[in-house]
Sequence to fold (116 residues):
Amino acid sequence: MYIQVVKSKIHRVTVTGANLDYIGSITIDEDLMDAAGIVEGERVYIVDNNNGERLDTYVIKGERGSGDICLNGAAARKVMKGDIVIIMAYAFLTPDEARIFKPRVVFPDTHTNKLI
Fold:
């Protein structure tokens, strides 16, 4: 049996863009992706602290050091530029693995989205 546990979390970043006319996904600064252990194409869950919306999508690599957090496609209707979001990725582990697993949690500067 496997259980799903949080493996990566980017806690409280500011949305820098919402692009409705894009094919979909979330663009994340590559520095933040690396710090959290999130890879391009990975499924992520997004929680908007401003309006309570929750959604899932996949990651597109953003320019390294840019601080970009951009919701694309239909997700742009759920989250606005300037909103504070939490981005989480999950992994399937056995219960024994889950007991000792430690997720990678990143706390960037909320104003710049840069690593502290």
In short: The chain has one domain: 3-94.
